[in-house]
Design brief:
Layout (H helix, E strand, L loop, with lengths): L1 H10 L6 E5 L1 H5 L6 H8 L11 E7 L8 H11 L4 E7 L8 H13 L3 E8 L2 H7 L6 H14 L7 E6 L2 E4 L3
Helix pairs in contact: 5-7
């Protein structure tokens, strides 16, 4: 209800046309996205031609095996009501730093109808903890990007992002 009130107040601002809800619950407990919840979230949307207002759900994944049929069902419920679901993925050394693993993750996201949005190559706190503060080997990032572009469809191709103190920046592809 609190989120609904915030969305209603955002709709009153003419320059705001979309709100993205960052949602760990989608990752950890997709079964909580019931028909009723999806319907409630969709009520925050306004699909009018004059002043549209969209809602998006953003979540995070690291490995392809995290994505289940429950994620696909939850995404389908939301997409069916005009709410896109996006996934961000951090590159973590020794965990998901193999091109074939990221390709499998892209395929799993596609099957679940979740759009692969951003692939964070460096700069997030979790990456600083596992990878250190140095950027990953650029050749690895190029190899991952090449494999994903070669073997995946358009919706499976993310933006490659570095998080900096000034915000997000494109890795440079």
């Amino acid at each position: 209800e609190k989120t609904g009130r915030i969305m209603d107040s955002l709709k009153d601002l003419p320059h705001v046309i979309c709100a993205r809800i960052c949602c760990r619950v989608f990752n950890c407990h997709p079964e909580k996205f019931t028909f009723e919840l999806a319907q409630r979230i969709s009520e925050w949307c306004d699909f009018s031609a004059g002043d549209p207002f969209r809602i998006e759900v953003e979540t995070w994944f690291i490995l392809p095996e995290e994505i289940t049929h429950a994620h696909a069902r939850a995404a389908q419920l939301l997409i069916g009501r005009g709410i896109n679901v996006y996934a961000n993925v951090p590159l973590i050394a020794g965990v998901n730093d193999r091109p074939e693993l990221i390709e499998n993750l892209a395929h799993a996201l596609r099957e679940a109808r979740v759009e692969f949005h951003h692939f964070y190559v460096a700069g997030l706190a979790i990456q600083d903890r596992f990878n250190g503060s140095a950027l990953p080997d650029a050749d690895l990032v190029v190899e991952i990007a090449s494999r994903v572009r070669r073997n995946c469809s358009g919706r499976q191709i993310p933006l490659y992002i570095v998080q900096t103190g000034s915000g997000e920046t494109d890795f440079g592809f």
